[in-house]
Write a structure and sequence with these properties.
The protein contains two helices and no strands. The two termini are 19 Å apart. The chain is mainly α.
Length: 100
Amino acid sequence: MTLTDTVGVNLAQMVELQRSLERKAAEVEQLLAELGALVGSGGAAGAVHWQGRVADRFRQEWDGVFARHLRQLAESLHQQARFVDDNRRRSNLALNGVDA
């Protein structure tokens, strides 16, 4: 029996997909951190000087909607990366007897 890296999918490509999902999650987290520093959060002002009712409403919306959705996106990307990795590992174990 010869070792192979293909079982309905290419196992090496699955590794790349998992890594890409993790990189994109990290990019979303970095975007969230950078924008959060500019906008501010939890009622605190950010680096951009902006005061008043409109600024407060914007920050509330940022915290309650936009930042929350970006966090959810990052977590979803992490979850999908784990899903891809788990499936790659199971496929590799079934095919090659190796959990790697």
